[in-house]
Design brief:
It is a single chain. This protein is mainly α and 227 residues long. The chain has helices spanning 3-26, 34-44, 48-57, 62-70, 83-112, 120-147, 152-186, 194-220. It has one domain (3-220).
Length: 227
């Protein structure tokens, strides 16, 4: 991939993320973790992330929220979503934790030359999974604790139950793309090149697509709730 195209992908993702973050500053999410999740979604879904946010996740302005609260008309703005949209937002929630973990783990893997069984790619994948799992569970745990009176241990167990399958599905899709892209276009997984991050954007989008069915199943079984 030519550097100019790689930078175009990266800049488009950054612009989308910043646009969403600025809008959220005026329209904070009912579930606080989504204030982070939506901008992160914009990073790996340039332009599309803005459409998804405005169509499925945009909250009323602060003043509108205050008026609704004082008028005792407060409600969850996502409650009337079609099921496919609720699953979509749940998948972005999973993707947000995974993406943050991947973004932190990849430079560490490159800097340390970490390998698994002598493979740098396997080393990248292992560190990415560990960090993504930690952030993914955290993203589930925080809203569970905020919206229920569960003790920490029970909330953690529910977070692990809700996130494990969707996270594995997300990471599997991401790994599949990087297994294809690295020998064909990258040569090596170097987290300090624009080409790597452009390919990671695509990998995360593939991960989102592979996690969508997993989120649908978890919601159908009552393990997760559509958002």
């Amino acid at each position: 991939m030519p550097p100019v195209i790689a930078w175009s992908f990266i800049i488009a993702g950054l612009v989308t993320a910043v646009a969403i973050a600025l809008d959220i500053a005026r329209r904070p999410q009912h579930m606080k973790v989504m204030n982070v999740t939506w901008p992160v979604t914009g990073l790996y879904m340039p332009v599309i992330g803005w459409w998804a946010y405005t169509a499925m996740g945009r909250a009323p302005t602060r003043s509108q929220q205050q008026e609704a609260h004082h008028g005792d008309h407060a409600h969850h703005h996502h409650s009337s979503k079609p099921k496919w949209q609720g699953v979509f937002v749940s998948a972005t929630h999973c993707g947000g934790g995974c993406t943050l973990g991947d973004v932190i783990a990849s430079p560490i893997a490159t800097l340390t030359a970490f390998t698994l069984f002598g493979s740098a790619m396997a080393g990248h994948f292992l560190l990415a999974f560990l960090f993504a799992y930690a952030f993914g569970v955290l993203f589930q745990y925080l809203p569970i604790r905020a919206m229920s009176d569960q003790p920490p241990g029970a909330a953690l167990r529910d977070a692990i139950k809700a996130d494990t399958l969707s996270l594995i599905a997300f990471q599997a899709g991401m790994y599949l793309w990087m297994l294809i892209a690295t020998p064909l276009w990258l040569g090596e997984m170097n987290a300090f090149t624009p080409e790597f991050w452009a390919m990671m954007q695509i990998a995360m989008l593939v991960g989102f697509l592979t996690s969508y069915p997993a989120n649908w199943v978890l919601i159908n079984k009552g393990i997760k709730h559509a958002m």
